[in-house]
Design a protein that fits this description.
Immunoglobulin-like, 2 domains, 5-stranded mixed sheet, globular
């Protein structure tokens, strides 16, 4: 005997052609969504920094402990940044003049950074830190620590 399988018909054959086609569409849709989810997670966790149009966001599952903010054309990029507690942010000045990243409340200050120089701060408290450049007060940025 073949273990009670005699006379069994596969579920796909019992369902008919329309049902089989609908089932295949659902499987393809689920596979497409799974691939999209994996690609999205890969993009978020593939490096130490990335930017979006509004913010740099770190995935909590793949906490990155370092992030670089570039100072160029009298602006900070990316801005704002959202990071985890314990992350070190490095501001690198690629502009043609000196700049700083100084917290509005005085909790951190990179000092003035000449072209090509960097300054780093490690954030050990969850809160929002607005900051400006000491000599260009119209240059503003925000660090959001979660």
């Amino acid at each position: 005997m073949n273990g009670g399988r005699r006379g069994q018909v596969s579920a796909a054959k019992r369902q008919g052609p329309e049902r089989q086609h609908a089932t295949r569409r659902h499987v393809r849709a689920a596979a497409s969504l799974a691939i999209l989810a994996l690609l999205t997670l890969g993009a978020l966790g593939s490096g130490t920094e990335f930017s979006q149009s509004a913010a740099a966001v770190l995935s909590p599952e793949k906490a990155v402990l370092a992030l670089t903010v570039t100072i160029a054309n009298f602006a900070y990029a990316p801005d704002p940044i959202i990071i985890s507690v314990g992350t070190t942010v490095t501001w690198t000045n690629t502009d043609t003049t000196r700049h700083s990243a100084t917290a509005d409340d005085g909790s951190f200050d990179t000092d003035l950074l000449p072209t090509g120089e960097s300054g780093s701060v490690t954030f050990n408290m969850a809160r929002t830190f607005p900051y400006t450049c000491d000599i260009h007060p119209y240059m503003t940025g925000t660090v959001i620590v979660r």
